[in-house]
Amino acid sequence: MYSEKVMEHFENPRNVGEIENASGVGTVGNAKCGDIMRIYLDIDDNGMIQDCKFKTFGCGAAVATSSMATELVKGKSIQDAMKVTNKAVMEALDGLPPVKVHCSLLAEEAIHAALWDYAEKHGIKIEGLEKPKSDIHEGEEEKEEY
Ligand code: FES
Fold first, then answer.
1. Which end of the chain is more exposed for a tag (fewer CB within 10 A), N or C?
2. Is 59 part of the annotated catalytic residue set?
3. Pocket perturbation via mutation, ligand 1, pick of 32, 39, 59 by most ligand atoms within 8 A of CB
4. Where are the domains of the chain?
5. pTM across the whole model
């Protein structure tokens, strides 16, 4: 059911933890499954993501997607981090079963929520970033094409 990469990231998740005085923190959840994901970003003065950590209270796929998402945004510029979509995370994990697609959406939204928090704290606008939703609903998932 799960790819080897998903299993590997689930068993050895990267970047677990929190960042004290993080530049941005984003928390999102899915009311239906009850899973919650929080992402911390450490962004330097040049807008580069120096560090990224996560805490996920959720299913195995949510842990694996958080782990991969943090790996993908680390070392990137804010604009490049915006390209780390749930699709990119899923591809990096060699796919997810259809019922688990929403778990990867949580990862994308948690990154966006952390970037939003950063932008608000710094009074800046990040191109293409919309105010994140704190709850990722089923109806919105169905609009995604996979
Ligand atoms: Fe909801 Fe995985 S089952 S995040």
1. N
2. no
3. 59
4. 4-121
5. 0.91
Q: What percent of the chain has pLDDT over 70?
A: 92
Euclidean distance between CA atoms 10 and 82, whole angstroms = 24
Q: What is the 3-state secondary structure (H, E, C) of the chain?
A: CCCHHHHHHHHCCCCECCCCCCCEEEEEEECCCCEEEEEEEEECCCCEEEEEEEEEECCHHHHHHHHHHHHHHCCCEHHHHCCCCHHHHHHHCCCCCHHHHHHHHHHHHHHHHHHHHHHHHHCCCCCCCCCCCCECCHHHHHCCCC
* 2 contacts 95 by C-beta, under 8 angstroms: no
Whether ligand 1 lies within 6 angstroms of the CB of 63 is answered as no
Asked whether the beta carbons of 77 and 48 are under 8 A apart, the reply is yes
Locate 28 and state its tokens: 């999102």
**CATH number of the domain located at residue range(s) 4-121 in this protein:** 3.90.1010.10
Residue 137 pLDDT level (bands cut at 50, 70, 90): low
- What tokens were used for 104? 């990867």
